[in-house]
Specification:
- The protein has six helices and 17 strands.
- By secondary structure, the protein is an alpha/beta fold.
- The strands form six sheets. It has a three-stranded mixed β-sheet with strand order 3-2-16, sandwiched between helices. Strands 4-5-6 form a three-stranded mixed β-sheet, sandwiched between helices.
- The longest helix has 17 residues, at 34-50.
- The two termini are 19 Å apart.
- It binds citrulline (CIR).
């Protein structure tokens, strides 16, 4: 029976290390402040808890400046099933081990069924019901997508590869605000990708607007995308919460990358 959509039951987040100042970032002029990033991730965790999600935080690892962007280390496919990735940036490979252990402690079976040269970031994986959209980006290779697609097939999920250009990840360009509503960045080339899945599409031209986080009836939106927030707030039944992520944006981070979300048994979540 296909899984039903629902809000996550639990979320795993990871603390910001002092070495965040050296996190990967595309704007070479940006100076990254770990304290500000900590305040913003704390507000994010509080927002999840206020919705009723149980949040567990892993300690930071100073050897891993990007470790707070935990989404890239795994793909959660069910309440008890996860796929550990091999992130595309070599400096991020060591992030995966402790996440795998934490997921195992939460009683998720974790699969690490891939050859050593393949690469995949969780930020390139967007779930639409029983289909995983997998972005082929500078971080995620075609054989990385093939590995995940094989794992997904064992879970009864299909996979669809999507080209990603001009952005770090697929989810920098498109995410879901609700199970039937995608938010897509104008000019991303993905504008027509969601209608075949029976979805409505809200096209935004705010660069930080396309990464929203659907949590059941609530959707988190970056405060850097006020027009996207305003348009989503007009959707019947959807409550919008805007969060300041300015320091995390400087390191190319966004809403989805700050947590791994675990659905209730028999459900899927964003
Ligand atoms: C990186 O470049 O890998 C990090 N500084 C940002 C990762 C953001 N991840 C995500 O959006 N899923």
């Amino acid at each position: 029976m296909p899984a039903l959509y629902g809000p996550p039951q639990k979320a795993l987040v990871r603390a910001v290390p002092d070495s965040f100042a050296k996190a990967l970032h595309s704007d070479q002029g940006a100076r990254l402040d770990p304290e500000r990033a900590r305040a913003q991730t704390a507000a994010y965790a509080r927002a999840l808890e206020a919705i009723g999600i149980e949040v567990q935080s892993l300690p930071a690892d100073e050897a891993c400046p990007d470790c707070c962007f935990i989404e890239d280390t795994a793909v959660i496919v069910a309440a008890d099933q996860a796929y550990l990735t091999r992130p595309g940036a070599p400096s991020r490979l060591a992030e995966v081990g402790p996440v795998g252990k934490a997921l195992a402690d939460l009683e998720l079976w974790t699969d690490w069924d891939h050859a050593c040269k393949t690469r995949l970031d969780g930020g390139d994986v967007l779930r639409l019901g029983d289909c995983l959209m997998i972005g082929l980006s500078d971080r995620s290779t075609a054989n990385g997508a093939d590995d995940l697609a094989r794992f997904a097939a064992k879970q009864g999920l299909s996979a669809r590869r999507m080209p990603v250009s001009g952005a770090l990840h697929l989810k920098s360009l498109a995410t879901l605000a609700a199970p039937d509503l995608a938010v897509v960045l104008a000019g991303s080339g993905l504008e027509d990708s969601f209608a075949p899945h029976g979805m409505r599409v809200l096209i935004t031209d705010e660069p930080q607007g396309a990464n929203v986080l659907a949590l059941g009836k609530t959707v988190l939106v970056s405060a850097a995308a006020p027009e996207t927030a305003r348009r989503l707030a007009a959707e019947p039944g959807l409550a919008v919460l805007s969060l300041d992520l300015s320091e995390l944006h400087k390191a190319d981070g966004a809403l989805t990358c700050l947590s791994l979300r675990i659905p209730a048994p028999g459900q899927w979540c964003c």
